[in-house]
Write a structure and sequence with these properties.
With 202 residues, the chain is of the alpha/beta class. It has one domain. It has four helices and nine strands, in the order ββαβαββββαββα. Strands 1-2-3-4-6-5 form a six-stranded mixed β-sheet, covered by helices on one side. β3, α2 and β4 form a beta-alpha-beta unit. The longest helix is centred in the first third of the chain and has 21 residues.
Length: 202
């Protein structure tokens, strides 16, 4: 994205993938509230570009078109960005399009329908495990060919999202000997022991 190069986007298999500068942290002498507001506004504009270009949620969009978008997956660092998610809710909550936001920062696995109380059941927020604590997660989008549609979308220790063509596989939970962390993600073990455990895994 011009002016916020960390943002990226692409469309694959009828799904828009968005990488966004949604980070944790607080205002300080290096970053002001105005800076945060600008970042979020840029994120919204970046998402809006894709939603508009591909007529996402537009009743006029043709499901048989090669450019038809049937789902959205966004990546960020933290659950921060309430205003961004509110934008998605206003734009997509009346559609059948599933929206999944995947992020880290909290360091423990979570999966929730953040807007369930507003009856928007197609939005999911997934917080992945701390990197050292678990295998990389896998996100699968099923294609639209007959062979693809015949594939089993069930997943062990994972979930299939509304629409039945996207699934998130946590891939086995945490590693043996994973490092316990406090509510801020700070390891609760001595640094030397943690390094020893990393070396054992390697």
């Amino acid at each position: 994205m011009p002016g916020q190069e960390v943002n990226f986007g692409f469309v694959r298999g009828g799904v828009v993938f968005l990488g966004l500068n949604l980070v944790g942290g607080q205002t300080n002498k290096y970053i002001t509230q105005s800076d945060w507001d600008t970042i979020i506004e840029n994120d919204i504009e970046w998402a809006k570009k894709y939603l508009n270009d591909y007529k996402v949620g537009d009743p006029e969009a043709d499901p048989n078109s090669k450019e038809y978008v049937r789902g959205i997956v966004a990546f960020g660092h933290s659950a921060r960005g309430r205003r961004f998610n509110k934008f998605l809710q206003e734009r997509l909550s009346q559609t059948d399009i599933p929206v999944v936001y995947i992020h880290g920062n909290g360091h423990t696995y979570q999966a929730e329908q953040s807007f369930k109380s507003d009856k928007w059941y197609n939005y999911w927020r997934i917080q992945v495990d701390m990197g050292y604590n678990a295998p990389p997660a896998r996100f699968t989008v099923r294609g639209t060919t007959k062979d693809a549609l015949d594939l089993d979308m069930s997943v062990d220790k994972g979930m299939v999202f509304p629409g039945g063509f996207m699934k998130f596989d946590r891939r086995g939970g945490t590693y043996p000997g994973a490092v316990p962390v406090d509510e801020n993600g700070i390891p609760l073990v001595e640094e030397d022991r943690m390094l020893d455990e990393v070396h054992e895994l390697l």
